[in-house]
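Quick illustration, no need to memorize.
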Amino acid sequence: MKRIKNKYIRGLSLVPPVYIVYFLAFSYYLLNYVPNDQWGEFLFPYLIIPHVIVFLICIILVVVVGKHIFSNDNLNNKNRIMWVTAIIVTMSFLLPVYCIKHMKDSV
């Protein structure tokens, strides 16, 4: 069960960086190709709803990965504090790094 959970967490950890690319591409498209009077049609379904979903995924990931960090016996206290701080500050970039490096499949 833990092995399957770790695979899902590692997969979900890639959602924030992928969303950043989506957000930047869609914002560029919206600003350059959509007339100003039609922004309302595009903002809610294509930007606000995905933004809320990714925000909720991020909160869940911080809780689950934070729990994993403090239960990981391979990290000393200094590294635990460093990882928690780094994930909270730069979540989109370092969360996948922690998940791939430290959340190995247990046999």
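The chain has one domain: 2-102.
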